[in-house]
Amino acid sequence: MRTIYVAGAALATALAIFLIFALFSGDVPRDPSQAGETQAAAPSARASSPTAPTPTVPPIVLPALPKAITLKTLPGTASPVVGTVVDGKAAISYARLGRPWSVASLPPFSKGQRVGGNTLPRTLAVSALLPGEKPRAELETDADYKKAALTAVRWSIRNYHPADSKVTWTASQRLATGKGWVLGYRVAYQVDGRQRVSHAALALLDIGQRKPAMFFVTVPDTRKQLWADIAPLVTSVRAL
C-alpha cells in the first residue's frame, strides 16, 4: 500500500511539472537573429520605392581660349569719367562714369555701376572678390590667373546673361596694370525669339590675398553706344 502511495505522488509531481512548462512556453523570447531579419525587411522595402530625380544644372560650355588677343575699344560713344570707384573690400579702384551710368548697390558685388534696371540682359560695371571658394593654392602664373578667369566667366554667364548663351572670345591678355588676366567675350542669346548680343569683359587682379579681385562689365546691344566704355573701364582698374 505504501508503494502505491509513493508511486502516485511521483506521478502527480511529474504531471504538475509538465503543466507548468506547457503554460509558460509562450514566454520564451524569439531568436534575436530572427527578430533582426524581420526588422531589416522594412528598410529594404522603403529603399525599393522610387525617388524623384535630382534636377541637374546644365554646364556652361566655353570655347578654347585663343593664344593672345588684345582688348580693343569698341565703336560707340565713351561716357565721361567723373571720378573713381574705390572698392575697399575687393581692394581695387576703377573709373566712375557719368550719365547714363550711376553708382548702385548691386549684391553680391561689393561696388558697382549700372545703366537701367535688373532685367536680363543687364548693363553692369561691378567688382568683388572672386566668387566661390578660395583657390587651393596661390595664383602665381599667367596660367593660374587664366584658369581662374575662365571659372569666373562661367559664373558670369550663368548669373548675368540669358540661358543658352553662346560665347565668342574677343580678348585674352595679361592685365596691363599688375599681375592678373583679362578676358573679353561676345555673348549671343535669344530674347523673345530674337537674336541678341552683349559684349563683356572680366579681369582678375592680384591683391596680395588668396582670392584675387574681380572686375566685370557687360553691355547688351540695346545700349551698344556704351560698348565704347568697356575697354577704358578695364584699363582703369588698379589694385589699392
UniProtKB/TrEMBL annotation:
This is Uncharacterized protein. Residues 40-51 have a biased composition (Low complexity). Residues 32-57 are annotated as: Disordered. It comes from the Bacteria.
